[in-house]
Amino acid sequence: MKKSRRPIGRLLMVLMIVFFYLPIVYMIVFSFNDGKSLTNFTGFSLRWYQHMLETGGMLEALYTTFSIALLASLISTVVGTFSAIGLSKSKKLVRDIMEQVDNLPMMNPDIVTAIGFMLLFITFRVNKGYMTMLLAHIAFCIPYVILSVMPKIRSLDPDIADAAMDLGATPWQALIKVIIPQIMPGIISGALIAFTMSVDDFIISYFVTGGGVKNLSIMVYTMSRRVNPSINAASTLMILIIAIVLVTINMLPLLTAKRQKREEGGRGLSRAFVPAVLACACGAGLVIFFRFGGAGGERPFEGEVLHIYNWGEYTGENIIGDFEEYTGAKVVMENFESNEQMYIKVANGEAYDILVPSDYMIQRLISEDYLQKLDHTKLDCMDKLADAVKGLPYDPENEYSVPYFWGTVGIVYDKTKVDIESLEREGFHIFLNEKYRGDIYLYDSERDCFMMALKALGYSMNTENPEEINEAYEWLLQCVQTMRAEIVTDEIIDNMAQGRRALGLIYSGDAAYVMSENENMGFYLPQSGTNLWSDAMVIPKNAKNPLLAHEFINFASEFDGAYDNSSYVGYTSANREVMEVLSGAGGDFEGIDAYIPRSGYELDEVFVYNDKIRKEISNLWSRVKIAASNAN
Questions:
Q1: Is the pLDDT of residue 327 over 90?
Q2: What is the secondary structure of 62-115 as a DSSP string?
Q3: Strands, DSSP E only, in 391-538?
Q4: How much is the pTM?
């Protein structure tokens, strides 16, 4: 029986290893992909490693990750070790209470701990940034160190310190030369756990950071909102650094054991920790070199700082670096995931110099007096912008905003599965055609999905009629329950580029990328009308550097900045010349009609902000998503 079980056990072990490591191998392979796709390998290239090294934000994230991990590990190890030793000499009641207190942070969900830290810093008006992240990491690492050290302390002879002092040692010498060496394996174990927890953390870091400070986890989360293979390169580099640390820790004791006596084994183990720290320090030093290398001459805004709050992955590869080189200023870029998330920070008084909200949110910010009017004497970019994206209803005179990107929402479709005649005949109703059951993507946007349903039913997407909204809700329910439509976010981009569904509701800019990757994909705007959206640059009233903000608005709207933005992100530039070049002969989007938004069509609308309707639609959309989850 035992022999027959061995092959099964080995098979299970192999399957377990494959389960854990295959995704890592997959990621490493695609870090060398020549193309932008995260699923289709088109050839070997180091372009994403080059891009990672040229992207200041990525290197800063690596620097932040490892510098905080090293500092948090060191400090928490010292504090945790001495705390554990102190607890071992305390009364039993005190020791039991403190051990329970120590266990609480480890048992708490990370989100609870994160919100607790965030509220603490807000209450005491501590500016969030590098120091708040470091303090939070130290705090949540200490319990793990105490937990690792305590068993080793319990295994010691309780009289060992007294014996050392009887032989002439001072209390400090007894601690450092007798107790610490005896519990060193527990200290090293705690330090490694603290380092791992710090490097791995995302949730707590996300809530306690500010001022543009990001660790790698936050950076990867931000980048994952759109197709960006630099994620694979950065993650591969991080795995390499950690692998070096692990190999060093595991191999060095084996090598030193041959040269040391058995009784010095504990000291040899302690020496293994030093090269591990040095390896991490070398990695951090490499990042610091790239991060701070280089210098320039005196420039107009030398030493000034511009704080920008923008969507994740919504800027080109070079624009930020070029602007810093041109002005001498430092750009601190923070990213948001939704207009509502951005609004909460602005409403709470956090200061930014530039925001890039969407049309309806700009309308809200204007009505609630959160924006300042632009000084058009400092702007020389307005005549370079397309007429179709200027003077939109949310800001008819462009007093507060300068367009950044714009586009429409339509249907991306696989030409081998869907014919254009069906699209022209059915419009958005094609999402209810049972021929495509289980072959549909909906974008996870309550506004755009309700827009689709309302337009399919012949209503305005800005309707305030409860009956029409409820009818749209029933339409969407039918779509997710009968058609088994899958609700996704930006993964629709790569998935549709690979032809994994017949139909999808998508932004025109994303459709342009899909079509550039796959010639079998098309984009259609129904005759019933759609959402004509616009994201624009605005300056909050509490901006600390409005002069530099105007300079950036000009820079981002000029040809070079706008070209870099649009060619990289794929969304339609507001700059008229950039639109023509990118969509013309030899341009990145030549022959791709999704790149140029439909304009002047009377049934296309711009969203109007209505808080009451927004809340109602948000509630109904939650029900739609639950129904979709149950159906699938």
A1: yes
A2: HHHHHHHHHHHHHHHHHHHHHHHHHHHTS-HHHHHHHHHHHHHHHHS-HHHHHH
A3: 402-414, 440-443, 486-488, 503-507, 521-524, 532-537
A4: 0.78
The helix/strand/coil state of 410 is strand
- How far apart CA 73 and CA 84 sit, in angstroms, is 16
Encoded tokens for 201: 């953390």
Contact 556, 562 (CB under 8 A): yes
* CA 302 to mean position of chain CA atoms: 29
Counting every residue written for the chain, the total comes to 632
Cβ(238)–Cβ(24) below 8 Å: no
Q: Which residues contact 31 (CB under 8 A, 6 or more apart)?
A: 48, 49, 229, 232, 233, 235, 236
C-alpha 622: how far from chain center: 23
Closest CA to 24 of 259, 240, 245, 227: 240
pLDDT digits (tens, 9 = 90+) for 250-301: 776 676 666 665 555 444 444 544 555 555 555 555 544 444 444 445 577 8
Cα-Cα end-to-end distance for the chain:
42
What contacts 24+ positions apart, CB below 8 Å, involve 124-129?
A: 127/210, 127/211, 128/208, 128/209, 128/210, 128/211, 129/209, 129/210, 129/211, 129/213
Task: Judge whether 216 and 55 are in contact, CB under 8 Å.
Answer: no
Of the pLDDT bands very low, low, confident and very high (cuts 50, 70, 90), residue 235 is confident
- Does residue 526 sit in helix, strand or coil? coil
DSSP structure class, residue 520: T
Separation CA 366–CA 372 (nearest Å): 8
Q: What is the pLDDT of residues 358-415, one digit of tens each?
A: 999 999 999 999 999 999 999 999 999 999 999 999 999 999 999 999 999 999 999 9
Query: Does an H or E element contain 144, and which?
Result: helix 130-154
Write the CA distances from 193 to 267, 339, 429, 614, integer angstroms.
Answer: 20, 37, 54, 45
Q: Are 334 and 212 in contact (CB under 8 A)?
A: yes
- Is residue 66 within 8 A of residue 54, CB to CB? The reply is no
